[in-house]
Q: What sequence folds into this?
């Protein structure tokens, strides 16, 4: 009887540890016991589950999946107050590197991840090698210098901070994870980084399955990746659309030497170009 009682205690203790290990990455430990049921309901509603307020099988399976460490909200969504950068020209710096990949692979992954957002907005990103950038990128484990420690392999893959002074915009990656260039035998750094940079630019999580800003990781061939429409609508709600001058006949063009700018006249509209316009000569 004593032996069975001990087994029951051990099982209850192990179950408690499992539950705690699941709820820590989702930020539930910061709530009082009386609030947990409501927060559980919010999460279930976010993912489109049956709303019970209980840690049922479906909810537990979702909580086990590798994910971003930023708390969930709703769909496409921005952070409270809609924080955004006040300039379209942003800098980034890779402070250190993961041993899982070559330096060149990390550099390419980060640049490609930022271009995901640049292709659909007026944003431009420049890499710097020293000093403080708008987006500081680093790899770390467990307690790594902010108030949001990582949890070891599998759980939280990374987190990033919304635009603001100091740590705002920075992206941190859990070096206890195994990151890859394009292999599914690990976590593709480009995919994780593209998601985190969405946070760096002001987007929160989306509850649209298939969206880049959905909170859990899902493998996609990085060479075939295309930014989903939900994410495009979200980022353009903050920064607007990227202006693309379609190939057309130019009525007239004037280059102003003093400013280095070129004015293009197309019908009754004129465009101002700065170091970006090449006009092919007609035969």
A:
């Amino acid at each position: 009887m004593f032996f069975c009682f001990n087994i029951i205690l051990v099982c209850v203790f192990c179950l408690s540890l499992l539950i705690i290990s699941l709820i820590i990455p989702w930020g539930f430990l910061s709530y009082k016991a009386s609030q947990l049921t409501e927060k559980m309901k919010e999460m279930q509603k976010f993912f489109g589950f049956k709303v019970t307020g209980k840690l049922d099988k479906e909810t537990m399976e979702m909580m086990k999946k590798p994910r971003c460490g930023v708390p969930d909200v709703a769909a496409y969504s921005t952070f409270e107050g809609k924080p955004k950068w006040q300039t379209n020209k942003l800098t980034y710096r890779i402070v250190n590197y993961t041993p899982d990949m070559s330096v060149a692979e990390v550099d390419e992954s980060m640049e490609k991840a930022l271009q995901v957002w640049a292709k659909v907005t007026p944003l431009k990103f420049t890499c710097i090698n020293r000093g403080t950038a708008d987006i500081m990128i680093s790899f770390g484990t467990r307690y790594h210098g902010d108030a949001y420690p990582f949890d070891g392999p599998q759980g939280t893959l990374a987190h990033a901070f919304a635009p603001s002074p100091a740590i705002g915009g920075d992206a941190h990656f859990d070096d206890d994870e195994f990151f890859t260039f394009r292999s599914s035998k690990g976590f593709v750094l480009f995919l994780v980084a593209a998601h985190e940079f969405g946070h760096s630019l002001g987007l929160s999580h989306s509850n649209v399955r298939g969206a880049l800003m959905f909170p859990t990781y899902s493998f996609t061939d990085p060479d075939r990746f295309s930014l989903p429409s939900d994410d495009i609508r979200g980022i353009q709600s903050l920064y607007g659309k990227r202006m693309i001058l379609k190939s057309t006949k130019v009525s007239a063009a004037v280059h102003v030497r003093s400013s280095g700018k070129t004015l293009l006249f197309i019908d009754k509209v004129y465009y101002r170009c700065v170091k970006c316009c090449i006009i092919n000569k007609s035969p």
User: Anything to note?
Assistant: The radius of gyration is 23 Å.
